Amino acid sequence: MAQKDLNERAKKAVLTYNAKESKAVAQEAIDENVDLVALIQDGYTAGIQECGDLFEQKKIFLPHIMAAANAMNAGVDLLTPHLGDSAKSTEGLGRFVICTIEGDIHSIGKDICAIMLKVAGFDVVNLGRDIPLKDIAKACKDNDAVAVGTSALMTSTMVNQKAFEEIMKKEGLKGKCLTNVGGAPVTQQWADEIGADVYSENATDIVNKMVKAVKG
């Protein structure tokens, strides 16, 4: 089956919350040796982003987003072990710690970023969501991370990104480990204000900026 057809099927599987079909598409893509990165970007990610737009428009609600995420993950989890074969860049760029900041339980956008960073050549350590600030800093130290990304999807949890910058300074990690901030309410102005090294708007943006930042 052509790449475009598989991409459309993956997108539709996410939009219709069909985990079984999502896995079937992923397996076909593996068997037929198509571009798995394109399938993730133009299929699964496109589907979840459209769900996000519908959610913002109040046309679907949180249970739908959760169901769409489950469908997306069903396919992407199957693809992940094979991504090294399709990645455009397989060079080791170092370890990248990523998580949703303390107090915040959103994870879809962060998980997409984690997948695309792995494809780009980072060894990604995905801590999950609602991670205590000290635990994030410890993970950076324990993994000798070159960068750390925190996501905040609410204005009430954005303040923890500022507190995290202070912890990184106290731990002597600032300057050794680049800090990236993202999430719906986060802006470049906020990143500048708190002293974060990089602001990223979405998965494509974080890959482009972090690859450039790490390579110097």
What does the model show?
With 216 residues, the chain is an alpha/beta fold. Helix 6 (108-120) crosses helix 10. The chain has ten helices and five strands, in the order αααααβαβαβαβαβα. The chain has helices at 3-15, 19-31, 36-56, 62-79, 83-86, 108-120, 133-142, 155-170, 188-194, 203-215, and strands spanning 95-101, 123-131, 147-151, 178-182, 198-199. The protein has two domains: 3-86, Methionine synthase domain (Methyltransferase, Methionine Synthase (B12-binding Domains), Chain A, domain 1), CATH 1.10.1240.10; 95-215, Cobalamin-binding domain (Rossmann fold), CATH 3.40.50.280. It has a five-stranded parallel sheet, with helices on both faces. Helix 8 links the parallel strand 3 (147-151) and strand 4 (178-182).
Please provide a brief summary of the model.
The chain is α/β, with parallel strands linked by helices and 216 residues long.
Task: Using brief descriptors, characterize the structure shown.
216 residues; alpha/beta; Methyltransferase, Methionine Synthase (B12-binding Domains), Chain A, domain 1; Rossmann fold; 2 domains; 5 strands; 59% helix
Residue windows where pLDDT falls under 50 for at least 5 positions: 86-90
CATH topology of the largest domain: Rossmann fold
Q: How is the quaternary structure best described?
A: single chain
- The fraction of residues assigned to DSSP E strands is 5-15%
> Looking at this structure, what is the CATH superfamily of the largest domain?
Cobalamin-binding domain
CATH architectural label of the largest domain: 3-Layer(aba) Sandwich
Helix share, percent: 55-70%
Number of strands: 5
The side-by-side strand order for the widest beta sheet comes to 2-1-3-4-5
Distance between the termini: 40 Å
Round the Cα radius of gyration to an integer and report it: 17 Å
> From the helix content, strand content and strand pairing, which structural class follows?
alpha/beta
CATH class of the largest domain: Alpha Beta
Count of separate structural domains? 2
Overall pLDDT level: 91
Q: What can be said about the biggest beta sheet?
A: 5 strands, parallel
Helix count, DSSP H or I runs of 4 or more residues: 10
Give the SSE string.
HHHHHEHEHEHEHEH
Identify the overall geometry: globular
